[in-house]
Design a protein that fits this description.
Elements: H1 2-24, E1 28-33, E2 44-47, E3 53-55, E4 61-64, E5 70-77, E6 84-90, E7 95-100, H2 118-130, H3 134-137, E8 139-141, E9 147-152, E10 157-162, E11 166-170, E12 175-187, E13 192-203, H4 208-222, H5 226-234, E14 243-252, E15 262-266, E16 276-278, E17 284-286, E18 290-295, E19 304-308, E20 313-317, E21 322-327, E22 332-334, E23 346-350, H6 351-354
Parallel strand pairs: 1-7
Antiparallel strand pairs: 1-4, 2-3, 2-5, 5-6, 8-11, 9-10, 10-12, 11-12, 12-13, 14-15, 14-18, 15-20, 16-17, 17-22, 18-21, 19-20, 21-23
Length: 370
Amino acid sequence: MKLYAYRLFILFLLAIGGRASAQHVITLSGKVIDSVGIPQKAATVFISGTTLITVSDNKGEFAFNGMPPGTFQLSVSMVGFDPYAHNVVIQNSSVKLDVVLKNKTTILREVVIGPDRRAENLAMFKLAFLGQTDNAKHCQWLNPDAVNFSFSRKTGILTADADEFLLIENKRLGYRVKYLLKDFSYNTNADIALYDGETSFEELPGTPKMKKQWAQNRLDAYNGSMMHFLRSVYRHATQQQGFAVYNVYRETSPNYANNKGTLMVDENSMDVDELLTRTDSALTSMKFRVLYIDYIGAKQPKLNTLSKSLKGKLMIEPGKKGSVLSLIAPEALIDARGSYTDYRTFYLRGYMAERRVGDQLPFEYQPPVK
């Protein structure tokens, strides 16, 4: 009788364990088809900003197992079709999608008669797209011929597109980056770059010495980044993570390409928690108008004050590691990885905006625990 009861108890524990495991295995899966419903084999499917990448099978199907809750951008690329991107919010259950690819429209490019500007355009593109930091300068472009350019002398705007992944090796961070460029424009007069695309990361092989240096360089790139800030917002730890945040009431001469211009802010930094509303177990909603964010690390906040009003407001210049963050969407939905649902959520200027593709880290990155 005791043996029978013991066996029942073991079976009960196994059943509970099996159910508990099943509840935590979340899958993002789907099927890739064309506009008439034919399954597409060997399409490249990846989660943008991560190392997760696969190809669709003979039935056009794909799957990513063990997904955490959060916001993700599912991206699909295949020759002959337009790039596909879809925002996915995962909470506590698996998600299955039908990915419908549209046939790519052939564009006849304008033939330009005159001096060849390609080398000049490529140089401008690299600076605007990769950035000008040490990490960006050590990036090696593997297929620069994949980029197509158009430059207007009248407006001073450079636009670019690509028919395939841009392949970049980041020698300082230890990643091979695949970037699916969807849109790019650079205003040379205002020094403002706007671009959109999906990124896939792969670890580069390296010696133990190289990997140790990569770890330090990755930590340096992470500290004070947009990913770092949004993760600290989600965890209610902006001050502990070295960020001082201020409400912006007025901006004058906002030329933040060189961190110039002035801002009217509160004399004291704010509690960011006042801006947050927890929407569910995976996402936090953030609502504001314009914020000034200064990454100070372990230092005390010190603003570049120009003048002070009687109502506790200061007129300041942005600091060396200061950023101005404007909310364009009605709200920002943020997950624990520092990801948000739509790239058009924010407009960013200053220090964080200068950290471009050459300083990007995959969402799997975690800083070392002190």
